[in-house]
Amino acid sequence: MVYAAGWKKAMIVAAMAVACHLFTPADAGSAPKPRETAKTAIAEKAPDFVLTDLNGRKYRLSDFRGKQPVLIIFSTTWCSSCREKIPLFKSLHATYAKRGLEIVNIDIQESKEKVAKFTVRHGLPYRVVLDEEGDVGGIYDIRGVP
Question: 139 and 120 in contact (C-beta within 8 Å)?
């Protein structure tokens, strides 16, 4: 039967396409992965880090563990999508900070001076910390922003 033969050929082609997709690495052709990356899943603890905020104070994620929820944002000053999300994060801060939500903006690989100007210009009410070397971004497997 011609119809059955055509259907069988279509199924074989579809199966080959799926097999090719399954056996092709997801990161083929992308940048190499950092040496150590976090493989954090839902309900697992986020990797701890210590970074400095714009006032020179140390911020350690584990200081908040078990006490309050923490929303971590990875961004840069030049990221237009990150800037577009600022009103959302300001709104979340205004609504939930008094209920205990800690919002931490981790700026990746930029100078303190540049980030400080950006923070003032955009009136960021939440904590901004510096990952000047990109080490924490690497641990969290951040390959780009947003």
Answer: no
What value does the mean pLDDT take over residues 98-107? 95
Residue of 99, 106, 96 whose CA lies nearest to 127: 106
For 134, left (φ over 0), alpha (ψ -120 to 50), or beta?
left
Domain boundaries, the chain: 38-139
* Fold held by 38-139: Glutaredoxin (3.40.30)
Q: Residue 84 is which amino acid?
A: E
Q: Which has the closest alpha carbon to 37: 115, 121, 141, 124?
A: 141
Categorize the per-residue pLDDT at 143 as very low, low, confident or very high, splitting at 50, 70 and 90.
confident
What is the share, in percent, of the chain residues with pLDDT greater than 70?
71
Residue 124 to residues 19, 28, 120, 127: CA-CA distances in angstroms? 48, 37, 7, 8
Rounded Cα–Cα distance for residues 91 and 71 (Å):
13
Rounded CA-CA distance 75/83 in Å is: 9
